Amino acid sequence: MPFNGLSLSRLFFESSLPQLRENIPDVMACSAAGLVGEGSECLGLDDDVSRDHDWGPAFCLWIPDDLFRQEFDRIERAVAALPSTFQGYPTRMARERRMGRTGPLPIKGFYRRFLGMDHVPSTWREWMAVPEYHLCSCTNGAVFLDEGGEFSSVRRALLEYYPDDVRRKKIAARCMIMAQAGQYNLPRSLQRGNIMAAMLAAARFAEAALSMAFLLSRRYMPFYKWAGRMAETLPVLGQQTAATVNILARTPWDSPEQGSRAVQAIENLCAEAAAELNRQELCSIQGNWLWEAGPLVQQEVKDPELRARNVMED
């Protein structure tokens, strides 16, 4: 594939910008443009398979909400006048091809779609209410231009990551799930020959371990099907976690030898996670039993109500 979707969209926007500035100069003077949101191209993970649907040169045009409503028809005419193909690819700027992901979008409406609110979360309850992959969808991709600054101001605030209390609470919960599913229930399920339980325990551990790597790296985890590939790029435990999850994914759970290898890989990753918790001064433990780490991480949460929540839950 000569282009990935993000670079292709940037080139298309750059070629479209003079025409947009000519047709809707007042709108462009206070709007932002880029490619952010849903889709593998926003994560830089699109490939040849991605091109079978909802792929091609396109960009978002984020417009202040009042102006979006007032000038909607004029904005739509300007967008409709853009080329229908670019670099040999059909563009996705026509209404029927946008899927709500590209084209003119109100700034607050865009954030409301993912956050359930049109502002940056300000309390731990608001932060906890937003699915992590939605936070990823607000902060992935790239902003090509922002003349008004409104779109980027929200994005920058979200990129500052979770408040410390919220991050600690989530890490505490991941410790508990990793310990319960991977360190305790998986080997016991294998001892019993309960292959279904082993598979489910491994999957539950894998998701918690991936989330832990993102939390320790201060990055939002994307939608589950992209989490493994994105984990490989994380600065903290990324490659180790991805390698361990790949071992689990390839393990035939009815093979005692392979099952033992998977259990050992889990213990090794938990040891590295425990060491990282110590390095980041989230807790102080000896060994790799993450069930011990979870309550220690949570006890440093400052908000009493959040600190009192079940340690196994976000």
Any chance you could write out the topology, listing elements then pairs?
Layout: H1 5-23, H2 25-28, E1 32-35, E2 60-63, H3 65-70, H4 72-80, E3 85-86, E4 89-90, H5 95-98, E5 103-106, H6 107-115, H7 124-129, H8 132-139, E6 142-146, H9 150-159, H10 164-192, H11 195-217, H12 224-231, H13 238-250, H14 256-279, H15 290-298, H16 304-307
Parallel strand pairs: 2-5
Antiparallel strand pairs: 1-2, 1-6, 3-4
Q: Features of this protein?
A:
314 residues; alpha+beta; four-stranded mixed β-sheet; elongated
Structure description:
The chain is of the alpha+beta class. It has 16 helices and 6 strands. The protein has helices spanning 5-23, 25-28, 65-70, 72-80, 95-98, 107-115, 124-129, 132-139, 150-159, 164-192, 195-217, 224-231, 238-250, 256-279, 290-298, 304-307, and strands at residues 32-35, 60-63, 85-86, 89-90, 103-106, 142-146. It has a 4-stranded mixed beta sheet, sandwiched between helices. A hairpin with a 2-residue loop joins strand 3 and strand 4. Helix 12 crosses helix 13. The protein is elongated, with a radius of gyration of 23 Å. The two termini are 40 Å apart. The mean pLDDT is 94.
